[in-house]
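[User] Once you have settled down, look closely at the record that follows, and write a paragraph about the fold.
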Amino acid sequence: MAQTTLSVRMDTELKHQLDALCADVGMTTSTAVNLFAKAFVRERRLPFEVIASDAFYSEANMDHLRRSARQMEEGRTVTKTMDELEKLADG
């Protein structure tokens, strides 16, 4: 298969972090980029979720908040003061 070169502009620190992570898992950065490209082409979509909003509003966090609110509404919560919590932590 013929090979070509792809040039990408990237923040220097991000590139260093990417190189280190790739090395940690036993691959080159080039291999990682090729894996991404193959998955993108195969799936015809980004192979990961892109979230443009604040992480606070992520679906996982919103589910957690809904569960917590439901527990409060059902009276399944315990209220402690900081003093009480510190006493529990000290044992």
